[in-house]
């Protein structure tokens, strides 16, 4: 994919958002995690569409449901599908792990990272994760 300078910068910014997203998620740092989003943000997973807004993240999000056994996650793949100066689509795969290092599961997903009022953040994600 040929890129101009603005698009290359957008890709760099989008990849940084994903780095920060995963670091904050693994640290269970709600303010840092929320800082990686552009709200409202959309999550489509398990055939359900959820609109997330600032303040929706709570500590129990990290310890219940599909994350009850979860300790940390890691990116396995992050490939740019499309990119422009204000939006980047990234094909990803991440793996969830238990504290002992055993794998809970790996999940393909698409992240749309946007520049909203000068802030790069997750605007949309569609995942096969529960």
Short description:
By secondary structure, the chain is an alpha+beta fold. It has two helices and six strands, in the order ααββββββ.
Give a quick set of tags describing it.
alpha+beta, Nuclear Transport Factor 2, Chain: A, 130 residues, 6-stranded mixed beta sheet, 47% strand
Give a description of the structure.
The chain is built from 2 helices and 6 strands, in the order ααββββββ. By secondary structure, it is an alpha+beta fold. The chain has one domain (5-127): Roll (Nuclear Transport Factor 2, Chain: A), CATH 3.10.450.50. Strand 4 and strand 5 form a beta hairpin. The chain is globular. The protein starts with a helix and ends with a strand. The mean pLDDT is 95.
For the residues shown, what is the average pLDDT?
95
Report the end-to-end length measured between terminal Cα atoms: 32 Å
From the 3D structure, determine the CATH topology: Nuclear Transport Factor 2, Chain: A
Overall domain count: 1
What overall form do the CA principal axes indicate?
Answer: globular
Q: Biggest sheet: strands, sense, closure?
A: 6 strands, mixed
Helix/sheet category: alpha+beta
Q: From the alpha-carbon coordinates, what is the Rg to the nearest angstrom?
A: 15 Å
Q: What is the strand tally?
A: 6
> Which regions have little confidence, pLDDT < 50, spanning 5+ residues?
none
Query: How would you spell out the order of helices and strands?
Result: HHEEEEEE
Contiguous helical run count: 2
């Amino acid at each position: 994919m040929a890129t101009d300078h603005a698009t290359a910068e957008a890709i760099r910014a989008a990849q940084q958002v994903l780095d920060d997203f995963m670091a904050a998620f693994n640290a269970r740092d709600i303010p840092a995690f929320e800082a990686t989003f552009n709200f409202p943000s959309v999550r489509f997973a398990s055939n359900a569409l959820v609109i997330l807004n600032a303040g929706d993240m709570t500590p129990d999000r990290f310890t219940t449901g599909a994350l009850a056994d979860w300790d940390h996650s890691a990116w396995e793949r992050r490939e740019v599908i499309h990119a422009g100066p204000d939006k980047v689509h990234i094909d990803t795969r991440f793996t969830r792990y238990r504290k002992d290092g055993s794998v809970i599961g790996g999940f393909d997903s698409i992240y749309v990272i946007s520049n909203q009022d000068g802030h790069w953040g997750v605007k949309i994600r569609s995942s096969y994760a529960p």
